[in-house]
Every structure is written in structure tokens, then in C-alpha cells.
Amino acid sequence: MNKTIAEARELVNKMNSPISEIQNVEKVFCPPFTSLMAVAEMLAGTSIGLGAQNMYWEEKGAFTGEVSPAMVKELCSYVILGHSERRAYFGETDATVNKKLKAAQAIGLTSIVCVGETLDEYESNRTREVVSTQTSMSLRDVSPEYAKSIVVAYEPVWAIGTGKASTADAANVVIKDFIRPAIAELYGEETAQAVRVLYGGSVTAANAKEFFAQPDIDGALVGGASLKVDEFVSIVKSF
């Protein structure tokens, strides 16, 4: 929840050209709902995609304050689902994330589905159990074709906004041994390898190359560093 419309315009104006020039990397901006239209206009004709930070699963109706898949689709190609902050502060569960995923499939949005363990779960050695369950429950019951298009973001909750990133090796192990096998159980090994899995959690220009060097990390879901022009441009260049 950062940036007014004017501030978003200023940020995107500074990032647009240097980010657009970076080839062979998929790049997506996900501003708050209020800034989506303004940013969409600025990104038209560029190589940068646009995504929403959330959406509801119903098409329309008496759901005051919510935003429907069709409303998102008018402006965006991507949507983030099940971010850890949505789960922690707004009661989202694997079941509601799954409903949103199915709604995204129905309207043709690319889903970025977030999974990750809390500090308590991490310290009690429950990472495998938590991450595997979140992956399998959140991603179930979509078409095999759509499943291949899903982006999964592994974001250990204890590393988000804390400055305490997971090690690159540890993050790669979680993705390789917990997340991809959970996807393989649902849709087969080919799909498990086709799904792009990102790392999120205190990614910076200083540590990005370490993460991107790992064979099972396909990119990053960047938080605080994406609000700093030079930092974010450097992260994209690192990839």
C-alpha cells in the first residue's frame, strides 16, 4: 500500500525507459488499484506488463469494497493471489486463494500465487509441511493447460520487509524439493518444471544475483526495493 496516483506516475516515469530496454526478462508492475489506470496508460506499447495486487472471486454483486476479475482484466494481464499479508491480516486461506485462482483462469488472467511459512513455522521445522500444503491446496482443480501458466512466488514470511532474506541455497531447496513436487502431484512433472517459481523476501540489488544463479529460482517478487528506481532497475538487470 504505497504511492498515490501522482507518486505512482513519478515512479513509473523514472523506471519505464531503463526497465523497458532490458530484453529477455518478463517484467510486471503491480501498483495499488487506484493507480492501475494511470500506470496502464504509461505502460502502453512497452515491454512491461501490469498486474493487480489482489481481486475477489465473484463476478459482481453486493461485495462492497471488493474488485472483480472483470474489473482487473480491463487493465491487467496478471494478478497476485494469496500474498502473505493478505493471509495474515485479512483472513485469506488456501481455499479462498483457490477460488480466486479459478476465477483468474475463467477470465484469462495470469496468476502469481504466493506461498510461504511464518517465523514460528520455520523455527519449528514445518517449512515442508506448510509450503507443500499451501501449494497443493491453492493450485488444485484448474486445467492442466492453465496450470502451466501459473507463477508461484515463494515468500518466507519471516523474510518479508525484515531485511533478513533466506539464503539462496535454502530458497532453492524449498522450491526444488517442496513446491515443484507438490505441483507435480497435481499436474505431473512436466507442468511442475514449466511453472515459473519466484523468490520473494528482502530481495535487493546486493543479493539478487545469488538468488538468480539458483537453477530452480525463475525470478523475484520484489517488495520494498521496487520503490527505489536504481535498486529495482539493478535487480532486473541482474536477472
Q: What are the SSEs and their pairings?
A:
Layout: H1 5-20, E1 27-29, H2 36-43, E2 48-52, H3 69-73, E3 78-81, H4 84-90, H5 94-107, E4 110-115, H6 119-123, H7 127-139, H8 144-149, E5 151-154, H9 168-187, H10 189-194, E6 196-199, H11 208-212, H12 229-238
Parallel strand pairs: 1-2, 2-3, 3-4, 4-5, 5-6
Helix pairs in contact: 1-2, 1-12, 5-7, 7-9
How would you briefly describe this protein structure?
This protein is 48% helix and 11% strand.
Keywords:
239 residues, TIM Barrel, six-stranded parallel β-sheet, 48% helix, globular, alpha/beta
Could you please describe the fold and organization of this structure?
The chain is α/β, with parallel strands linked by helices and 239 residues long. It has one domain (5-238): Aldolase class I (TIM Barrel), CATH 3.20.20.70. Helix content is 48%, strand content 11%. The chain has twelve helices and six strands. The chain has helices at 5-20, 36-43, 69-73, 84-90, 94-107, 119-123, 127-139, 144-149, 168-187, 189-194, 208-212, 229-238, and strands at 27-29, 48-52, 78-81, 110-115, 151-154, 196-199. A six-stranded parallel sheet has the order 1-2-3-4-5-6. Helix 3 (69-73) links the parallel strand 2 (48-52) and strand 3 (78-81). Helix 5 packs parallel to helix 7 (127-139). The chain is globular, with a radius of gyration of 17 Å. The two termini are 26 Å apart. The mean pLDDT is 96.
